[in-house]
Amino acid sequence: MQIDDTDRRILRHHLADPEMAGAELARRAGVTAATAWRRIERMRAAGILGPVRAVIDWRALGWEVEVSLRFTLDKTHPRAFDDFIAAAREVPEVTSIETFLGRVDVRLTVIARDMAHYAQVYRDRILRLPHIADTEALMLVATIRDEGALPL
Amino acid sequence: MIEIDATDRAILRAMAEDAGQGAGAIGRALGLSQPAAWRRIRRLEEAGVIAGRRVVADRAALGFGVTVFLGVKLATKGRPSLEDFERAAQAIPEVQVVQHVLGLFDYRLRVVARDIADFERILRRRIMTLPGVGQVEANVLLSEEARPGPLGFG
User: Is this complex scored with an ipTM above 0.90?
Assistant: First the structure.
């Protein structure tokens, strides 16, 4: 399906704030509420829009530490990616798995209750993941911006 | 920090999958009445555990075929101001995420672009001109998978 400028205007507001009420969304996009609703339903049906997901703030639940772990895998092993990802899914402290084209092969977001807990997760769970050639860590200090909006 | 029980965890797990379903549907799946589910969701929101909502969108279908993560190191020459860098990075429409980190880099940026040529334009004109920017490493996102984290395990 092709999207037009009306869709784009609606999406700009809907992606930036999915909780915005239909009437307000319609007003900002300059369309009637019925049009906004119909357009969103059409994009959902076409698979352009998926589910709305709740964003969980782990710090509010006492998970104070978040680390971005970047891995280079041993690619001489044909199943390196599959094995690594399957094993990473079994680690409860992993909240996202991303694969890349570049110097980094896979990135895991790992959370922990505090630094001592992180050290334990890192040693007991992360370093035991298969086919790791190299790894480096970026510890999150602060998220300055985290937006779902696209520059439509 | 709030204490949550197994029912709250199940609610969070359901909402992290699909928060579009109402309190009624979430409650039914867990054997709770609609008002009971609604009260729990409300409490999780007020405690900041549910920090917001995010629409899963097919970025490629919307014309953004490329997502790149940048590791940015600030230049050691001069005295780079974190505030200046952060303010300028946030003002770039293609930059969705700005995170201050410790390690090999100082910042992580998530950038969306229409294609690789568009990304190159953003990199040259917007990123490399950020105040205090030093070394930059780019990795093109191939796949991403959100995990339930500790919620999915008991």
Answer: yes
